[in-house]
Amino acid sequence: MVRMKGEWPEEGDLIVGTIHKVLPYGAFAKLEEYEGKEAFIHISEVSSGWVKNIRDYVRENQKIVARVLRVNPKKGHVDGSLKRIREDQRTRRIQEWKIEQKAEKLLEISARSIDKTLDEAYDEVGYHMMDEFGDLYEGFELSSEEGESVLLDIGVEELWAKAIAEVSNKNISAPEVHITGYVDITSYASNGVEVIINALTSIEKDNLEIQCVGAPRYRVMVTATDYPTAEQDLKDAAEECIRLVESKGGEGTFYRELE
Predict the structure, then answer these.
(1) Mean pLDDT calculated for residue range 244-250
(2) CA 4, CA 97: separation in Å to the nearest integer?
(3) More confident call, 224 vs 40
(4) Residues in contact with 195: Cβ distance below 8 Å, sequence separation at least 6, in sequence order
């Protein structure tokens, strides 16, 4: 059961649930992120078209995403709609929920490593991370990239910070993006081949690979953690390569994409 900060969802929220009862006039779904809560979807909110048999659209144990229409905490009611959501919103919300599930599992592992329960984890650090980072998984990603300092900076106790950072490092891989550019380089020097080889060799890095497409064109492939960094690394490498060739009397051109 992934937990949200609030006790109840708000009107307009997209909620994830599991259908547990289907009646001729509507369906009831247990809410995955609000313990002990359920939503009712009236037959008129199941589909935008006329619904003759509700079971043609929903069934027991089906995972659904619904938009919250009304919330009445006093009566314990949440009314939801299946028809007021686009397919892309439904897909994105399910993906977010799966990420939340992974984050809660990581929090539970962190808690066990210091002899704490999941309830204690939420109370002592989980809800605080949600407040500071927007969601749990963001906190784990940041601690994987930056270490325990990112948690200490927001007031997390050192015991928790170390436990979460260790679990993050073991379970979260750094994101990778891959981009490609091309350089056309020509040398008119008597040792032109050597000039070009030296220029290409000088820009080689762990995150950069060079392939010959066919002289004078060379493919430059960059791997980085984000697109801005990748674009900058590619631009810097291409410009340095061309500068070195031009310094020996040659010429070069950089292409981000080929037509």
Answers:
(1) 95
(2) 11
(3) 40
(4) 187, 189, 244, 245, 248, 250
Rounded Cα distance between 212 and 209, Å, is: 10
Torsion angle in degrees (nearest 10) through CA of 169, 172, 174, 176? 160
pLDDT at 1 over 70: no
Residue 86 pLDDT level (bands cut at 50, 70, 90): very high
Q: 134: burial class by Cβ within 10 Å (0-12, 13-18, 19+)?
A: exposed
**How far from the centroid of its chain's Cα atoms is residue 1's Cα?**
20
Q: What pLDDT digit, counting tens, does each position of 115-170 carry?
A: 999 999 999 999 999 999 989 999 999 999 899 999 999 999 999 999 999 999 99
**How much of the chain exceeds pLDDT 90, in percent?**
80
Token readout for 66 is: 């619904």
Assigned token pair, 45: 């909110």
User: What type of residue is 81?
Assistant: S
Q: Specify whether the CB–CB gap between 227 and 177 falls below 8 A.
A: yes
For residues 85 and 65, the answer to whether their CB atoms sit within 8 Å is yes
CA neighbor of 104 nearest in space, from 64, 70, 79, 135: 135
Strands (E), the chain: 14-23, 26-31, 38-42, 63-72, 77-81, 177-186, 208-214, 217-224, 251-255
221: left (phi > 0), else alpha (psi -120 to 50), else beta? beta
Q: Return d(Cα 131, Cα 9) in angstroms, integer.
A: 16
Query: 237 is written with which tokens?
Result: 């490498």
Q: Under a CB-based contact definition with an 8 Å cutoff, are residues 221 and 237 in contact?
A: no
pTM of the model: 0.62
Cβ within 8 Å of residue 139, ≥6 positions away = 103, 129, 130, 132, 133, 150, 151, 164
